[in-house]
Design goal:
The chain is mainly alpha-helical. The chain has helices at about 1-30, 35-60, 70-100.
């Protein structure tokens, strides 16, 4: 069982690195603020939460670690906090940018626009 957890953790850490790479490429290549914000959120969730869970699994599968349960618990708790905070922060940034009209954007349909 410990080998399965160890390899699962290693795979999740690798997936996190790939998500960070794609998030960075999206920040460089995507055309506007809102889509770049999506790429940043993908990089945060996939590049931080998935590897944190992977570190937790890797720690549980590593019999040579003296405090493996503390490491795994801290990794899981931190991953859950980031998982809850990152989308909320991205939503707040997008909502504030839309309301202040800082970002030039011409949508076909704007459901957030207030009819006066």
């Amino acid at each position: 069982m410990s080998e399965i957890l160890f390899y699962l953790g290693a795979v999740m850490i690798t997936i996190g690195g790939v998500c960070d790479l794609f998030g960075a490429l999206g920040l460089l290549k995507f055309p506007n603020f809102y889509i770049r914000l999506h790429a940043a959120t993908v990089g945060t969730i996939g590049g931080a939460v998935v590897p944190l869970f992977g570190v937790g699994f890797l720690a549980l599968g590593a019999d040579f670690l003296p405090h493996k349960y503390a490491i795994a618990g801290a990794s899981f708790v931190t991953g859950i906090i980031v998982l809850l905070a990152a989308p909320a922060g991205s939503h707040a940034l997008a909502y504030a940018a839309h309301k202040t009209k800082i970002v030039k954007w011409e949508p076909k349909c704007d459901h957030l626009e207030v009819e006066e």
